[in-house]
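QA checklist item 7 of 12: single-chain prediction sanity check.
[x] sequence parsed
[x] length recorded as 450
[x] structure emitted
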Amino acid sequence: MNAAPSTGWRRLLPRTLAARLALILFSGLLLAHALSFALLFSERYMVARSMMLTHLDQDVVVSVALLERLSPAERARWAPRLERRTYRYLLGPARPGVPLTSDRAREVTALIDRSLDHRYRLQARTVSTSPERFEVQLTLADGQPLTIEVTPSVMPIARWLPVVLAAQLALLLLCAWLAVRLATRPLVQLADAVERLDPARAHPPLPREGPVEVVKAATAFNAMQARIGHYLAERLQILAAISHDLQTPITRMKLRLEAMEEGADRDRLIDDLEQLLQLVREGIAYARSTHGATGPAVWLDLHALLDSVVCDYQDAGKPVTLGECARASLSTRPPTLRRIVENLIDNAVKYGGSAEVGVRRLDDGRMAVDVCDRGPGIPEQEMQAVLQPFYRLESSRNRDTGGTGLGLAIAQQLVVTLGGELVLANRDGGGLRATLLLPVAPASTPTPAR
């Protein structure tokens, strides 16, 4: 029964931690500020009330005695001079009104009566409630009525006070924002580091500075990142060792089968061993690809490299063509880039029957190397999964294709080492487009070798 209101209130809260902390700090400071101003105005009210009662107590005796001794004509001249901020003297009867409605009015009336030593018969009535105004009538010795009109009010607020209040609120908001920013900046850095966490890439450790809790969190994250990298390297070393050790017995088995008499069973066994040997070789290639690109980064003509790769395939009788290519030079590692393009072409030829290579320059300055085919494409829900090692689409699990699920994974792994990105997309009309996005470093600062 109580969960629904709680959920409703939580929906009104800001979603980010920084906004919630800022709201809490600002609300607390605003409440404290409002309390201090409330106490200030209360103190001003008490002081103003005390001053009014004290002045009225002392002033009414002198004023009434003075008016008693003056002639009616002189009273008319002197009455305005006796006026004060909260009360004044009127020569005439009080206006119609109602009995006194507030304790303050009765207290003031009793004070006037005591100050005059109860020598006059007082008639008090309220003539206004907003603002509060009441009149106390008495009769002088010569029979002329005298009315004391009282309008209680606090001391007026200075015109600069609202400006100061607004400036203080703005300062409080600025201080709360700065405090929240300083407190949440390490959390933002930690969240960014977690989002960038990739065992295949080398990232600098988080700086261990700030409060003790932040230092502990950064230390734990750095240790976790190092352990993940160590576990990944160890796993790949095991994969490479097993794959390497399997090559020798597989080769011996293949040689023994080739020495046997020819037959259908012998051919099928040799075919199975060939596929197993291919899987082992690609396992070794994948393990090596995770150690990063080798060789120094050099400036090269991208069109010349692709033209060389395409010519090699054409010389081997493969249906590979070079389409439209934007001219560009970039700093990269040619062996690694060549291996990536060859893997993408092999994948296109294997599943699409042919491949077309092209180069585009993107608006952000990067170069896009496209390898396109007219094969069956890849379902959208599996577009990212095919980049994982040993992942194969159901249609590729047959003897004809011989897929191992490592071709695109090796390409993806090598692309990471070059600081690029591999994007797969289905083409209009059928087929797949594999796009290799490469950064182009300025000529004055070539990309350093990794």
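[x] summary fact logged: Residues 1-6, 395-400, 442-450 have pLDDT under 50 and may be disordered.
[ ] second reviewer sign-off
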